[in-house]
């Protein structure tokens, strides 16, 4: 279970690379500092791309939760 | 912006190669790199506004089996991926002026994704590292 309160959830399952990351970037841009954004992705590239981007962009990766056939990435907008 | 500019010269106009170029562009833009794209010949032709989303086929190495796999995979059109890349980063797409002349095109014939037309020397003004040719 996700412990943080999710502000916005994006279902990017079925989107190929780099779709889920692009959706996350869009949501982060539209959001406010402190917002918690959740992205559901079935794309294997997201596993490396989303953490790499979060590190680069200076946000917080709250958690990655493996689900059946997809992963849930929970991100806090830090700046 | 940080890191080297991603400089791409796009020559091929098939959907698979343009999709690969769009994905590279989006990834580089996401990671804060500038992207400098130069469109020549068939890649430029594929950016014509009247046919950008039409079927541009796939590279010959795909064969019929590969073409069928790509058709089944579907996914977002490469033009939308380029648009996303432009919305998140510093991505400039230039039309090669020679190719414009060869194909008899003017800027009004091209999708708004294309920023301007320029000569090859102008393209190299913004190159600060290797050039990738697709």
Short structural description:
Chain A is of the alpha+beta class. Chain A has helices spanning 19-30, 46-57; strands at residues 8-11, 36-41, 60-66, 71-76.
Describe the structure.
The complex is a heterodimer of chains A (79) and B (134). With 79 residues, chain A is α+β, with helices and mostly antiparallel strands. Chain A has two helices and four strands. The longest helix of chain A has 12 residues, at 19-30. Chain A is globular. The model of chain A has no long low-confidence stretch (mean pLDDT 94). In chain B, helix 1 (15-30) links the parallel strand 1 (6-10) and strand 2. Chain B contains six helices and five strands. Chain B has one domain: Hypothetical Protein Ychn, Chain: A (3-Layer(aba) Sandwich). Chain B is 43% helix and 16% strand. In chain B, helix 1 packs parallel to helix 4. Classes of the chains: A alpha+beta (79), B alpha/beta (134). The A-B interface holds A 15-19, 21-22, 25-26, 29, 49, 52-53, 56-57 and B 23, 26-27, 30-32, 73, 75-76, 81, 84, 87-88.
- Straight-line distance between termini of chain B: 24 Å
CATH fold assignment of chain B:
Hypothetical Protein Ychn, Chain: A
Helix percentage range of chain B: 40-55%
The CATH fourth-level homologous superfamily of chain B: DsrEFH-like
**What does the overall shape of chain B look like?**
globular
Biggest β-sheet description of chain B:
5 strands, parallel
The strand line-up of the biggest sheet of chain B is 4-3-2-1-5
Largest interface: A-B, 15 and 13 residues
Q: In this structure, how is the largest beta sheet of chain A organized?
A: 4 strands, mixed
Rounded average pLDDT of chain B: 95
Helix vs. strand class of chain B: alpha/beta
Keywords:
A: 79 residues, Translation Initiation Factor IF3, 2 helices, 4 strands, 29% strand, globular, B: 134 residues, Hypothetical Protein Ychn, Chain: A, five-stranded parallel sheet, 43% helix
Helix and strand layout, with pairings?
The complex is a heterodimer of chains A (79) and B (134).
Chain A: E1 8-11, H1 19-30, E2 36-41, H2 46-57, E3 60-66, E4 71-76
Parallel strand pairs in A: 1-2
Antiparallel strand pairs in A: 2-4, 3-4
Chain B: E1 6-10, H1 15-30, E2 35-39, H2 41-46, H3 63-73, H4 78-88, E3 91-96, H5 97-103, E4 116-118, H6 120-125, E5 131-133
Parallel strand pairs in B: 1-2, 1-5, 2-3, 3-4
Helix pairs in contact in B: 1-4
């Amino acid at each position: 279970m996700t412990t943080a309160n999710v502000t916005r959830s994006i279902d990017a399952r079925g989107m190929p690379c780099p779709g889920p990351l692009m959706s996350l970037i869009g949501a982060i841009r539209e959001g406010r500092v402190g917002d918690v954004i959740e992205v559901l992705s079935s794309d294997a590239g997201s596993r490396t791309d989303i953490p790499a981007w979060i590190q680069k962009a200076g946000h917080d990766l709250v958690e990655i939760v493996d689900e059946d056939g997809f992963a849930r990435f929970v991100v806090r907008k830090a700046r | 912006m940080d890191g080297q500019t991603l400089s791409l010269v796009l020559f091929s106009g098939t959907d698979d190669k343009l999709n690969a170029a769009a994905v590279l562009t989006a990834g580089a833009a996401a990671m804060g790199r500038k992207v400098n794209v130069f469109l020549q010949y068939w890649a430029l032709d594929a950016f014509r506004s009247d046919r950008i989303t039409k079927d541009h086929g796939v590279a010959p190495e795909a064969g019929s089996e590969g073409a069928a796999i790509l058709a089944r995979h579907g996914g977002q059109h490469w033009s939308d991926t380029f648009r996303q890349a432009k919305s998140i980063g510093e991505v400039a797409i230039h039309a090669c002026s020679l190719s414009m002349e060869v194909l008899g095109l003017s800027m009004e014939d091209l999708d708004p994704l294309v920023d301007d037309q320029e000569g090859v020397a102008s393209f190299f003004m913004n190159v600060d590292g290797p050039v990738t040719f697709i």
